[in-house]
């Protein structure tokens, strides 16, 4: 070939190549550089944002009540070349919360309701070619009585928080208009260990004015890329129409089955070809052979083998991101879930990013996925319609994932009704009926659209689910049970479940939620209900695990929640965050996550000394301190400071041990045959408050737990009745809003990040003594008024919501340090904003043998005090 000809040929190929690329199907994300305005678009105040984006990542966590629930406008210019004219263009939104209107060059192209499913708009007829086109998107997360969720324990962050794509396709393509699904559905028939059949339904759209002949090519490869099936089919597409084609393959013998232990995937390739065999469109999907069933007595079965489902629930948000979380960060969650050897994941309470389901397919995690009809329904035609559409989108978009085995549609639908004391009996009856009616319809829809899946629903501890019969609609009913937290005690779980199983012997049950709140800054020797301690979390999870694994009829359990998550109205130890996670909001594991690894993982040797939160500890006298050790071993030897302390054996992954720490640095070693672990901890052993080996000392007054405080860079020790030589209260009682529930007050304390220090307090203490030597001290006292106007929180409070601003309690007291009055007529309710953390610092001179006495002299009501921090100045 001569040179000129050769280069000319290359140039021709390049130009031809480029121009042909333009008319081919393509999908491009258009996430970067949107102009965004919060509020009406007339506002000039725009900023440039990238998607994923939410406007609530900060205001859902500040001290102010509420977060922006309203409109946000996004706009962007998109260039379409003249060559793109023959293509059909869709704007594809993977998720925007919660109602979206899209405009192209000023024309309204579509509206979508619901914040957690994907949607497409065909924008072709509004596009101008050879020029820029203005795309405007209005997103609204205002409360809307016709869009679920109406009410729930999580933050409804507004915005376009998942990818936006421009999808361009030739005029014949695999459909994108069937509820934004991938345009094909994979079904299996006669699946067994011996053989398995695949059947695929494909929807093809023709946008041409005339009939067109196309071909569909389907290939299935095994995991080693060896073709297993291959088929081509001719298609005659009518003008401007959509056709459905079914392709049924003969059975495959000895299929490799999919399971958590061995998630074997086959690969499906679909191609739509024109008469010249040019590829017009294509799809790729991992598929797998597996089948599931439930039995009311024997539990859950996968491929005819019993499998106890043990796993977690997941919310999609993340510290500092709200719900606009980069997908790679989210994928890490799924890896962490697999690492703990969970075999099931409930994506609560809404469909999550499809990339995560892909990962569950690959890693072998069974998935329960659901739509967000939570706490209550609205009895309107519109609400019902939105719910139906949402469930159709949900099932059609997630249908092909082999990991998805359970489709759900409601969570705790009678929660609001159960706490409603305003409605009349007739209104309540109507609410019961309308939720039941909707459930019946959605159950029917789900069974019809997903006949090989298990239908599910979750309820809270209330007879309403039995009484109305709603619990018998789905194939599997999940109880969300919080015994030992919101309700009675930890051992009541098994009693309740046995009772339910006896009364409803045909119903299959799952424990779909359980778990206490836990904060790694809070630890104690004496864990109690509602104290948010690490130890109480361990106690509850470990007992629940035993209770569920003891019961063959229970299909399994999913912990609430995989990680801490945002719930704006909450006042847990970290306000605005639901702290029931096995991991923190930033995905740092709490100890309980490691315990699950120990108890669920029987493949790799694992051991963990569960004191990551305990870098420093103050102990009095010769006291020991209890710790937990986690391992999937039978026994281990424990060494303290290089001397053998004892041998332990593990039951359900755990061994409990009292450690006789010495003063200073201590090293604990766990050594078993296969694996070992080592931790170091700095212990301050104190016999008196002599301020010799320490210069600062803090007490978490009115509380039984240690609180590790970042702001003050100290761990406040638990309180005690006065002990000579040390410290303590002479009188007063630990304040509890509700005697058998809360430790202290579960509210956001404003003006501080040390909420647990303030939330627990002594009431009616007039004398508090500390036996400290003579000297100069800086003394800081901590106060908060516990009573004025709690924010509404049905999850925490139930009937404690009655205190209003009108019956503001007046507690007025003088504060003395020894003989000096440092504050007279202290009136917390009057002088400070609601639930405001108050800190008072004073310098005090203590004389020989005098010690320090804090006197809170009542003038009206009972005085309160939350904490004290003393620093020796010389
Ligand atoms: C539940 C709800 C869940 C809450 C959880 C809790 O039962 O289903 O949405 O977050 O309780 O922490 O109270």
From TrEMBL:
Residues 698-857 form the Malectin domain. Transmembrane segments: none annotated. Residues 297-600 form the Glycoside hydrolase family 2 catalytic domain. Pfam families: Glyco_hydro_2, Glyco_hydro_2_C, Glyco_hydro_2_N, Malectin. Residues 188-290 form the Glycoside hydrolase family 2 immunoglobulin-like beta-sandwich domain. Keywords: Glycosidase, Hydrolase. One of its GO terms (molecular function) is hydrolase activity. InterPro entries: Beta-gal/glucu_dom_sf, Galactose-bd-like_sf, GH, GH2_Domain-Containing, Glyco_hydro_2, Glyco_hydro_2_cat, Glyco_hydro_2_CS, Glyco_hydro_2_N. Residues 25-170 form the Glycosyl hydrolases family 2 sugar binding domain. Belongs to the glycosyl hydrolase 2 family. This is Glycoside hydrolase family 2 TIM barrel-domain containing protein. It comes from Flavivirga aquimarina.
């Amino acid at each position: 070939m001569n040179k000129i000809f050769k280069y000319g040929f290359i140039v021709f190929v390049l130009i031809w190549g480029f121009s042909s690329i333009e008319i081919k199907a393509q999908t491009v994300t258009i996430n970067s550089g949107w102009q965004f305005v919060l509020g009406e678009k007339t506002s000039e105040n725009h900023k440039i944002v990238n998607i994923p984006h939410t406007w609530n990542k900060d205001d859902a966590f500040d001290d102010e009540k509420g977060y922006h629930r309203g409109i946000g406008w996004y706009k962007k210019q998109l260039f379409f070349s003249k060559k793109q004219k023959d293509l059909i263009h869709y704007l594809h939104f993977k998720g925007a919360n919660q109602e979206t209107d899209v405009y192209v060059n000023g024309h309204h192209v579509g509206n979508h309701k619901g914040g957690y499913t994907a949607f497409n708009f065909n924008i072709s007829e509004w596009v101008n070619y050879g020029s820029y086109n203005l795309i405007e998107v209005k997103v609204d997360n205002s409360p809307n009585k016709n869009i679920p969720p109406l009410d729930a324990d999580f933050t409804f962050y507004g915005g376009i928080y998942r990818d936006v794509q421009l999808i361009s396709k030739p005029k014949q393509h695999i459909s994108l208009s069937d509820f934004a699904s991938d345009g094909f559905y994979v079904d299996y028939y006669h699946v067994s260990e011996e053989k398995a059949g695949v059947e695929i339904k494909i929807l093809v759209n023709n946008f041409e004015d005339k009939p067109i002949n196309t071909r569909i090519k389907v290939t299935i490869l095994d995991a080693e890329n060896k073709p297993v099936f291959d088929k081509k089919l001719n298609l005659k597409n009518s003008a401007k129409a959509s056709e459905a084609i079914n392709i049924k393959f003969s059975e495959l013998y000895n299929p490799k089955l999919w399971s958590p232990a061995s998630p074997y995937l086959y690969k499906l390739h679909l191609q739509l070809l024109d008469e010249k065999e040019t590829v017009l469109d294509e799809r790729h999907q991992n598929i797998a052979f597996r089948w599931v069933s439930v039995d009311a007595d024997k539990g859950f079965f996968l491929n005819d083998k019993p499998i106890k489902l043990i796993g977690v629930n997941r919310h999609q948000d993340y510290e500092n991101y709200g719900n606009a979380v980069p997908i790679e960060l989210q994928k890490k969650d799924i890896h962490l879930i697999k690492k703990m050897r969970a075999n099931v994941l409930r994506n609560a309470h809404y469909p999550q990013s499809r990339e995560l389901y892909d990962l569950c397919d690959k890693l072998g995690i069974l998935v329960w996925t659901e739509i967000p009809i939570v706490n209550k329904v609205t009895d309107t035609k519109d609400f019902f319609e939105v719910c139906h559409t949402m469930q159709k989108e949900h099932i059609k978009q997630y249908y092909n994932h082999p990991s998805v085995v359970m489709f759900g549609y409601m969570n705790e639908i009678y929660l609001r009704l159960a706490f409603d004391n305003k409605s009349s009996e007739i209104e309540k009856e109507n609410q019961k009926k309308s939720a039941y009616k909707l459930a019946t319809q959605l159950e029917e829809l789900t069974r019809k659209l997903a006949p090989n899946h298990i239908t599910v629903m979750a309820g809270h501890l209330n007879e309403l689910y039995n009484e109305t019969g709603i619990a018998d609609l789905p194939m599997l009913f999940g109880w969300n049970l919080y015994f030992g937290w919101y309700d009675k005690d930890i051992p009541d779980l098994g009693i309740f479940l046995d009772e339910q199983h006896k009364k409803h012997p045909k119903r299959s049950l799952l424990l779909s939620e359980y778990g206490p709140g836990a904060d790694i800054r809070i630890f104690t020797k004496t864990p109690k209900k509602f104290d948010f301690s690490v130890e109480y979390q361990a106690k509850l999870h470990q007992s629940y695990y035993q209770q569920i694994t003891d019961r063959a009829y229970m299909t399994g359990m999913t912990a609430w929640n995989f990680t801490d998550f945002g719930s704006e109205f909450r006042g847990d130890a970290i306000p605005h965050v639901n702290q029931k996670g096995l991991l923190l909001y930033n995905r740092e594991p709490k100890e309980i996550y490691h315990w699950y690894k120990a108890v669920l993982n029987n493949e790799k040797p694992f051991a963990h000394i569960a004191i990551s939160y305990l870098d420093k500890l103050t102990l009095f006298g010769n006291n020991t301190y209890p710790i937990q050790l986690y391992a999937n071993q039978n026994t281990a030897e424990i060494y303290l400071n290089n001397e053998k302390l004892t041998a332990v054996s593990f039951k359900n992954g755990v061994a409990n041990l009292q450690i006789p720490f010495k003063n200073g640095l201590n090293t604990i070693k766990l050594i078993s045959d296969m694996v070992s672990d080592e931790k170091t901890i700095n212990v301050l052993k104190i016999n008196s408050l002599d301020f010799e080996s320490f210069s600062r000392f803090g007490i978490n007054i009115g509380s039984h737990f240690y609180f590790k405080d970042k702001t003050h860079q100290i761990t406040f020790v638990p309180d005690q009745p006065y002990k000579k030589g040390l410290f303590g209260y002479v009188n007063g009682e630990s304040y509890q809003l509700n005697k058998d529930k809360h430790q202290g007050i579960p509210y956001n304390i404003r003006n501080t990040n040390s909420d647990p220090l303030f939330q627990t307090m002594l009431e009616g203490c007039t004398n508090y003594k500390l036996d400290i030597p003579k000297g100069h001290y800086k003394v800081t006292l901590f106060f908060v008024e516990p009573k004025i106007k709690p924010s509404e929180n049905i999850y925490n409070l139930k009937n404690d919501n009655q205190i209003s601003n009108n019956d503001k309690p007046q507690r007025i007291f003088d504060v003395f340090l020894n003989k000096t009055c440092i504050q007279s007529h202290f009136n917390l309710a009057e002088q400070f904003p609601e639930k405001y953390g108050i800190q008072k610092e004073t310098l005090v001179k203590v004389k020989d043998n005098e010690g320090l006495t804090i006197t809170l002299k009542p003038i009206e009501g009972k005085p309160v005090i939350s904490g004290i921090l003393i620093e020796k100045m010389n």
